[in-house]
Amino acid sequence: MSTTRERLHEMIDELPADQFDAAAHAIWALSVPEDDEPVTEEDRGDLAATHQAYLRGDLVPHDEAVSRTR
User: Fold this and answer.
1) Which of 1, 41, 42, 51 is surrounded by the fewest CB atoms within 10 Å?
2) How many helices (H) and strands (E) does the chain have?
């Protein structure tokens, strides 16, 4: 049995208000298009280098980086 648009609407209508944010996030996550760009060797190298920097503790937390630019 497949779920219809109407049934999805019914399910949303039945949700308690405290679940709206979780439902919105789930629906948003399902609506994001799949990344169809291949990962290049350069990308893999950059990811590996960043991971090594993370393991060494060389990265700056986001909030600290933002505060440095102000």
Assistant:
1) 1
2) 4, 0
